[in-house]
Amino acid sequence: MDNIKIQNLEVFAKHGVLKEENVLGQKFLISVILQLDIKEAGLSDDLTKSVHYGEVCHFIKKFMEEHTFYLIEAAAEQLTRDLLASFSKLRAVTLEIKKPWAPIGLPIDTVSVEINRGWHLAYIAFGSNVGDKEGHIRRAVNSMETDKAFRIGKISDIITTKPYGNIGQDDFLNGCLEIETYLDPFELLEKLHQLEKEASRKRTVRWGPRTLDLDILLYDDMVLDTETLHIPHMDMHNRNFVLEPMVQIAPFKRHPVFYKTMEELLKELKAL
């Protein structure tokens, strides 16, 4: 990944815990490393193949002036996310906000916060077997398409499948989609639960009927095991209704634990 660096952009804005800071305002120095592929721009000498750093500077200035945060941590987080969402060629951003002469009652040059955020590749399984099944799925996908935290990639066909877990209920509509998101896995899980809630999802019976089911299958090549979230999805390799759509949109994506492609996992499952 290549870098474009902006050093110490000076902005006067109103951020801080003290009234003097968030009412009267003060100077901030902002440095940004924009991570993207600029090879095509370098070969073609075409600005549209890169990111206009002048536009980025004006974007930062406008953001800092139009918002007020108590913490520079919050300013950095929200600014970074807005940069990622607003400049499509960016893959990641490292941003530092410096506060010169911070009012701590001691001689100090600057206090600063530096964070790095970027886009992550994830795969989501979706399903529904209650009510307007396809409508529940379409509305969830549409909500993600209009949310700046997501970039929607490939979406599989919607297939009809029998219920999993031998529980008597209606057939499911299932599929998978590819997304990019700057949310971390737990934020992503919370966002998916919110979409399920909007579809009136009730969590009563395991593998039971549901208006909408959204599961994180893969997140980059992460392996994560907590009480609330497992990545990769612990049972995806045993589910035809997951692997068949995954083969359609990402046949050569490798499972980070089994190190086998989606095609290989589906072939093994069908051979059982």
Please characterize this protein's 3D structure.
- The chain has two domains: 2-118, GTP Cyclohydrolase I, domain 2, CATH 3.30.1130.10; 120-271, 2-Layer Sandwich (Alpha-Beta Plaits), CATH 3.30.70.560.
- It starts with a strand and ends with a helix.
- The model has no long low-confidence stretch (mean pLDDT 94).
- Strands 5, 6, 7, 8 and 9 form a five-stranded antiparallel sheet that branches.
- A hairpin with a 4-residue loop joins strand 10 and strand 11 (230-231).
- It is elongated.
- Helix 7 (240-249) runs antiparallel to helix 8.
- With 272 residues, the protein is of the alpha+beta class.
- It contains eight helices and eleven strands.
Instruction: State the fourth-level CATH superfamily of the largest domain.
Output: 7,8-Dihydro-6-hydroxymethylpterin-pyrophosphokinase HPPK
CATH fold title of the largest domain: Alpha-Beta Plaits
CATH architecture of the largest domain: 2-Layer Sandwich
Query: Which regions are unreliable across 5 or more consecutive residues at pLDDT < 50?
Result: none
Distance between the termini: 42 Å
Q: What is the CATH C level class of the largest domain, in words?
A: Alpha Beta
Mean pLDDT: 94
Q: What kind of assembly state do the chains in view correspond to? A: single chain
Write down the domain tally.
2
**Could you describe the largest sheet, including whether it forms a barrel?**
5 strands, antiparallel
Structural class: alpha+beta
How many strand segments? Answer: 11
Strand content: 25-35%
**Topology order in helix (H) and strand (E) letters:** EHEHHHEEEHEEEHEEEHH
Total helices: the number is 8
Radius of gyration: 23 Å
